[in-house]
Amino acid sequence: MEFRQVTAFLAVAEELHFGRAAERLHIAQPALSQMIRALERDLDVDLFERTTRRVRLTPAGEAMLEPAVAIGTQVDGARRIARAAQQGLAGRVRIGFGGTSGYSILSRLAREAGERHPGISLDLQPQMYCGEAAIALRDGETDLAIISPPVPAGVEVHVIRQESVMIAMPSGHELAERESVSMGELAGQPFISYAPSHGSQVREVMMRLADDAGFLPQVVQEAPDPYSLLALVGAQVGMAVVVESSDHIRIDGVRYVRLAEGGDSFTLALGWRRNNPSEALARVLDIVRTIFPSPIATRRGPSNLARGC
User: Fold this and answer.
1) Which pLDDT value is given to residue 148?
2) Which residues contact 95 (CB under 8 A, 6 or more apart)?
3) b/e map 95-131, b = 16+ CB within 10 Å
4) What is the pTM of this model?
5) Does the first or last residue of the chain, that is N or C, have fewer Cβ atoms within 10 Å of its Cβ?
6) Sorting pLDDT into bands at 50, 70 and 90, what band is 245?
7) Do residues 291 and 208 make contact, with C-beta atoms less than 8 angstroms apart?
8) Residue 160 and residue 99 in contact, taking contact as beta carbons nearer than 8 Å
9) Whole-angstrom distance, CA of residue 113 vs CA of residue 281
10) CA distance readout (Å), 287 to 119, 130, 293, 305
11) How far apart are CA 267 and CA 145, in angstroms?
């Protein structure tokens, strides 16, 4: 059975007239009759009763009508989906992200994409810090990712903002009531951090600021994600360097204190492979550029995959 035969059957079944059906399909009447006869031979049934005065469906034709309509609907739907995908109105975009900054950015992007292009599905892959996300982006495992420049070759970036950091410390700590602290005052304090394998930019900032202050942080425990890290702070295990966007996370026993040297610690950006042909990605990037106007010019640089959010 061919789809053109199903289309021919539906036209005749609706018109109950071969001439009108042929005009509707823009084909000659003999060609239409041949398609119907071929379909009847394939099914080994008579679909129509034909006389010189009228055409009507046989019981087999009546039974064939509902599945034929369903086939037509499915094929039309497939055509629309294919055309929408070609135009970037449908498809899937894989997004890697991690950290509290990632959640806040992706929450807004997902909401806007859902309203503007409901046919585009965002496949969110969380707990992927910037170093890991850059590698996944480079290797084609994701289409879009939250990363921090410099980036791998072939990756374009759209800068979201300059990210600052602060200190999360147990609320009972002697420094917790201070308006701000300097990194040098934290020498000898126990720290909680992300594992080096994450490629966390926040860990890199902590190590750099501590080095500038003349000490090596005493990391007493590592956490896999921001919520676990803050839970450990609340349990008085130690203090942690966190991004300023973490301050909306309220956990008992945690106090956020401004870090004097924590301003504009790193650049937060969305990255994608320059040669990615996805039209759905192009539509999502249009949304990104609209809702996240870049505060500074984007730039590319040599790969530094050990860095991340």
Assistant:
1) 85
2) 106, 109, 122, 123, 124, 125, 142, 143, 144, 145
3) bbbbbbbbbbbbeebeebbeeebeebebebbeebbbb
4) 0.62
5) N
6) confident
7) no
8) no
9) 11
10) 14, 21, 10, 27
11) 14
